Amino acid sequence: MKTEDLLEMLEKDELREPRAGQVLWRWLIPALILSALAMAGILGVRFPMEKTLMTPEIAPKFYLPLLLGVIAMPIAVKFARPLARVRLSWAWVFPAIGLLLLGYAFVTTPESQRMMDFRGKTILPCLLSIPLFSAPILVAVLTSLRQGAVIAPQRAGVAAGLAAGGLGTAIYALHCTEDSPLFYVTWYGAGIAITVIAGALLGRVLLRW
Amino acid sequence: MIDNEWMAMMHDRQADWTRLLRAANAGDTRAYGLFLQAVTPVLRSVVRARGAGLPEADCEDVVQEVLLAIHLKRHTWREDEPAAPWCYAIARHKVVDAFRKRGRRIHLPVEDFAEMLPAAPEADPTEKADIETFLSHLEPRAADLVRAIGLEGKSIAETGDAMDMSEGAVRVMLHRSLKKLAALRERLIEI
Lengths: 209, 191
What we know:
The complex is a heterodimer. Helix content of chain A is 74%, strand content 0%.
């Protein structure tokens, strides 16, 4: 094909693809609904919800990951634009807050009970559920990013993993009955880390163009 | 040596490309054509300079792949951004990718694009990819449409009349055909 002929066609093609941010909603809302329904259907919501949402020591397990997800989502989508300057270093604030909570819980928990709280009863379900409920959200973000021109696929995957891991964990927190920060900071953190690693690996594969 | 004249020229390139691409976004197809015409020789220079050992025909194929990428990803450019660095970012990514597919690793700093002068105008550069192969991958109507617009240089309206299609349908089919072309090239099918 002559380059001239190609240019002729490109010039006349006035249709533009939608931006990643526009596509995101199309995928994200069904993904959130799917994860929430799966959580409610398979595991069940813990009632009364006020206990999770309003108790000072327990509430962070829902609000912290939610905040992480809400902050990371628009940042992840920025990776669609080659010239967007995207920083991820802010994300370290979350492990830092987690450590503070952990330290607080360590000090306020009687020594005899620390190990019991830390282990809880549901490490494995927690480590499986968080990546599982995050997965549809991760797929939604990565699918939207494919619409863009991602120059740094691995970092974009990390951002997508933070967004998905945050929201997926918030969903799981509505079921989980482990209320000590010794448990939820550690194991939720691990669940989110697994999601972030999955995001980085998938990003390298899926965000090529 | 970097003299003032050269600096001024590079500065002009930035301003010109941005102006043209903004006009193109506003629906000025002529400006878009000029933009592509301005970008092509710069791409050609970079690809040839970096394509050490790659035959000229393959180089031209790489240039075409980059042009397709710039075209199909132009929604990732925001009007408040300068167009040239955006083009360089897309082109760099795509050139490295194109060489990797052809079994070559290249180091390509993005500055190469900014500093590269356009290749001197010349008679049609040869290219390897054959349009007939591309057409054979399209459904018959899309192939006719690509032939009319790409080879015969017909307008959207003329093509619509000739093929008894609405202009909207012609636009959609053209766009889909270009996406298909990019996908085929991605799999390194020589067309």
